[in-house]
Amino acid sequence: MNSHRSPVFGRRVGALLFTAILGASQCAQIATGHPVHRPGLPRLGADQVGTPVVLPQAVQFDFTSRLTGQDYRLYVSVPPRLQPGKRYPVLYVLDGYWYFHAAARSVPADPGDHLQPAIVVGLGYPTDKMDELLRRRTFDLVPPPPPGGAMAGVEPGTGGLDDFIRMLLEEVRPFVQDRYPVDSGRQAIFGMSNGGLAVLRMLFRHPQAFQTYIAASPAIFHHNRVILADEANFGAKLQALETTLRVLITTAVDEQYRGTDPVLLANDWRFVDNAAELADRLAGLNVAKLKVTYTSFSDENHKSVALSALSRGLRFALQTSQVKSDGP
């Protein structure tokens, strides 16, 4: 008698054979301690050529500013699941070549861990040469000395901050707002060191530009603390605002000399004291439209604190309603 096997039976036999082969392969892997090589990818070797790292959901734009005539690189990351019609908070990150990638990868795809999905915008320069990056940021992120200031207080290679701010506010921000679904009422800016100084300049001179300002270890010392010249008129500017500003100032405990050597004390940049004293003065304004938070990270110095400050800044800027509105 001839037997008949259905196609279903054949598929079952094939599936059983595949399972048996896979099981044998796994057993061989367990027995030898080495995974079975699957075709398609090369084995790692000295002759293998690497490829550029790609950051998902992110693009970059290289452009020449019509205001400064200089070249810049703009980085933009968007949430992977944009909802039609929804507007998203935006976080601007200065020194984007250092901090944009960490910020973009830390923002969640969906609300969770007390953070909201957000658009992250970084600003930097179209070069990988560190000397050029340092030269450009030193010029762009430090204000000029006061008019008629003593030459002893002038630092060469600095002074381009006000033009940089114009470029950011008049070229970059309109581009981002036209191209991406930005919630114009939830905009924040983060800067570290000279970038923190730039954030303070924007806070004092353009308080209406953002709702949240994050100045990490701001380099207030430049040009004999010229940045503080705008502090006197800041309270009056706050009165004209329609929204409440939130300001986070951070430092690292070990980024200031605390010894007794008079030479070292005279040459210290007072990162901690300058920032803490400014935070106290701002908090003392007692203006309903200003909420100030100051944080100093223990066991950190000026180099090591950057990611801690960025992490705290992300939470401060993008916290959900589950966190108190005036907390870090």
From TrEMBL:
InterPro entries: AB_hydrolase_fold, Esterase-like, Siderophore_Hydrolase_D. It holds the Pfam family Esterase. The keyword tRNA processing does not apply. It is an enzyme of class 3 (hydrolase). Residues 1-30 form the signal peptide. GO terms for molecular function: hydrolase activity, acting on ester bonds. Its EC number is 3.1.-.-. The keyword Lyase does not apply. It comes from the Bacteria. Keywords: Hydrolase, Signal. Belongs to the esterase D family. This is Ferri-bacillibactin esterase BesA. It comes from Lacunisphaera limnophila. The gene is besA_1.
